[in-house]
Design goal:
By secondary structure, this protein is of the alpha+beta class. The chain has three domains: 6-42 and 199-234, no CATH class; 46-198, no CATH class; 245-417, Butyryl-CoA Dehydrogenase, subunit A, domain 3. 57% of the residues lie in helices and 14% in strands. The chain contains 14 helices and 15 strands. Helix 5 (145-159) packs across helix 12 and helix 8 packs antiparallel against helix 10.
Length: 418
């Protein structure tokens, strides 16, 4: 039996040193302490990812500009498109809200696939994609085609009582693009790409005697001690600054979280939309919109909207406050529960954009008129700002700070026993 060479990896979450095989084939290496994925042996190579990215790029013009569904309004067909909803929202005075929707539904998906194709082009011309890889790692969480797909279903339920709905054949392009982007998320491995383009930065041997350093940006475990002209410790591979103190990181999280929590107040008190029917205008807040769905008998849709627009944003804020206080006051709580809560915040954060996507679709379908009209309320901007700020807060909260509190507690417990 051939013995595989072992390398030393430091877990990006709990900082545990783990020995793993140098090359994994159809296997995944997880940290034995926190179960964080260290290496993926089932990731696709760059060429295969580029083919899927090219297919998505071909589909995007159809998915973004062609009708996804349409209604028959007094004998006049009205079509809903992703771009049309953003444009109508912008020209009717809600430019900032439209920009947030544009960023997540148009700009981020296009940038995501273009970055993958750019990396492939840089490989062909022999150029190293340092900044391209860094930007690709940061933009993934802002690609929200899957959230928009659910918003499409919610908007259809919301409009069906006003007019008959027909789904366009072009919806298939949007669905296929969503599936392919989701596939790319699961198969692309930035750590593998870094190792491919920078082969001179080899992993450490399993018997390396000294504590190594870890770069949280490119996930590289290394032993070099590189200092720039300003005296800052930098990663030798991606050149990221590694000397940002935990105090500064926490200040960034606190600032974004407090601002997001403040935005949640007007987001829930002010109307988020107003629907006019035959001269009668009804304004809905987030909660009243859920109650309206329940009165219509659409309990499943009411549950989706309640979870995405009310339960998730408030739970995100509460969990982030708890984790920050746990770090500050060094609470001796279950570390595994805290890490699960942090993973929950990372996973559900983007789904809060569901309500804004529904508003964009409604704007695209229900134009202002004497019989039936729809407009966005003042709460939409505050709600979108709260979603963005809490996502920024969660992305800046480093799990290693929670683990360090846990390790300190374990060390004190052992010293007490001794």
């Amino acid at each position: 039996m051939k013995i595989q060479k072992l390398t030393l990896e430091q877990c990006a979450e709990c900082e545990t040193l783990v020995k793993i095989p140098h090359r994994l084939y159809n296997h995944i290496a997880n940290c034995p302490n926190c179960h964080h994925t260290l290496e993926k042996g089932n990731a696709w190579n760059l060429r295969r990812c580029a083919v899927i990215a090219l297919a998505v790029l071909i589909l995007l013009p159809f998915a973004l500009t062609f009708p996804l569904m349409s209604i028959d309004l007094l004998g006049m067909p009205v079509h809903a498109t992703i771009w049309g909803g953003v444009w109508k929202m912008a020209v009717e005075g809600y430019a900032y809200t439209a920009f947030m929707i544009l960023l997540c539904s148009v700009v981020a998906p296009i940038a995501f696939v273009l970055l993958i194709l750019t990396i492939t082009a840089q490989h062909l011309i022999g150029q190293r994609p340092r900044y391209t890889l860094i930007f690709l790692g940061k933009i993934q969480e802002w690609v929200m085609f899957d959230v928009y797909f659910v918003a499409l279903a919610v908007a259809a339920f919301k409009i069906k009582d006003y007019a008959s709905i027909e789904f366009s054949i072009h919806l298939s392009a949007f669905v296929l693009a969503t599936l392919l982007i989701t596939l790319l998320f699961s198969k692309i491995d930035l750590k593998q790409a870094w190792a491919y383009f920078y082969p001179e930065y080899r992993p450490l041997a399993s018997d390396y005697p000294h504590p190594p350093s870890l770069c949280p940006v490119c996930d590289f475990t290394f032993d070099e001690n590189i200092i720039d002209l300003k005296g800052r410790h930098r990663c030798p591979r991606c050149e990221s600054n590694l000397d940002v103190p935990d105090k500064i990181k926490l200040q960034r999280v606190w600032a974004a979280l407090i601002a997001g929590a403040i935005m949640m107040i007007p987001a829930n008190l002010l109307p988020i939309s107003a629907t006019g029917l035959a001269g009668s205008v009804s304004a809905d807040t987030l909660m009243s919109g859920v109650i309206t769905f329940m009165k219509m008998g659409s309990y499943a849709v009411a549950a989706i909207v309640f979870i995405a627009s009310i339960a998730v944003p408030f739970s995100k804020v509460a969990i982030l406050f708890y984790l920050l206080l746990a770090i500050h006051y060094k609470w001796k709580h279950s570390i595994h529960l805290q890490i699960k809560l942090l993973h929950y915040v990372h996973f559900v954060g983007r789904w809060s954009m569901l309500d804004l996507f529904v508003l964009a679709l409604m704007m695209s379908l229900l134009e202002r008129g004497n019989i039936l009209s729809f407009s966005v309320g003042d709460a939409a901007f505050f709600f979108g700002s709260a979603v963005f700020l809490t996502m920024i807060a969660s992305s800046n909260l480093d799990a290693r700070m929670l683990w360090r509190v846990h390790y300190q507690y374990e060390k004190e417990k052992e010293e007490t026993k001794a």
